[in-house]
Design goal:
about 210 residues; single chain
């Protein structure tokens, strides 16, 4: 081969495009979260329902357990659609494992995933620090409570609905937002995310330091 011959162009991917490894990692995260959703629906929710029977809006405080897939997917994959993909797939896994909510959880997954997705989109999928994770969790919590009030709790008094929404936002912020951020940092530190955006961004920060 002539030394002056041009080299074959290296394979590159636009920042927003998904690769096979992105789909694989996102799917693994979503399936794990789907199992958590199932445990939350069949173990945690009934227990909390019994405890909060005197004041049902308190159940909003556990809502973040159903939101973590969207925030985690967005923080790890860092590409358009990641939060929505992970939340819907997680909901599908929950439905297949069996829950009294049946396949209505897919509607919930869609709405909750959109809540996180709009936050990452608002920052053009370029900011993923703790405040953004907290905001994504909080907005996802708001989307969750609005949809659930419409689907299940339309008969509640207005003050119950408002209180439920506030508790849902708090739960989303803490359980989905903070825990997803902390888990992402922990996974990055192990090196298992080295092939996706979260790992690459961490390497870039270390190189600049």
């Amino acid at each position: 081969m002539n030394a002056s011959s041009p080299k074959a162009p290296s394979k590159t991917f636009p920042r927003g495009s998904w690769r096979v490894i992105d789909i694989v990692i996102a799917s693994v995260l979503a399936v794990v979260c789907g199992v958590i959703f199932w445990i939350w629906s069949n173990g945690v929710a009934p227990l909390i329902g019994t405890v909060t029977v005197g004041f049902p809006p308190l159940s909003g405080l556990i809502g973040g357990g159903w939101l973590i897939a969207g925030v985690l997917g967005g923080l790890v994959i860092r590409k358009p659609g990641a939060a929505l993909y992970c939340e819907i797939l997680g909901a599908l896994v929950e439905a297949l494992l069996g829950t009294h909510y049946s396949f209505a959880v897919l509607i919930s997954g869609l709405v909750q995933g959109l809540g996180a997705e709009v936050v990452f989109a608002a920052f053009r999928y370029r900011r993923f620090e703790l405040p953004i994770a907290l905001l994504a969790g909080a907005v996802s919590g708001l989307f969750m409570t609005v949809s659930e009030i419409a689907m299940y709790y339309a008969f509640w008094q207005t003050q119950f609905k408002i209180t439920y929404a506030i508790f849902g936002v708090i739960s989303g912020l803490v359980i989905a937002g903070f825990l997803a951020w902390a888990l992402t940092r922990a996974l990055v530190s192990t090196g298992v995310l080295s092939s996706v955006a979260a790992g690459r961004d961490a390497r870039s920060r270390r190189a600049r330091a």
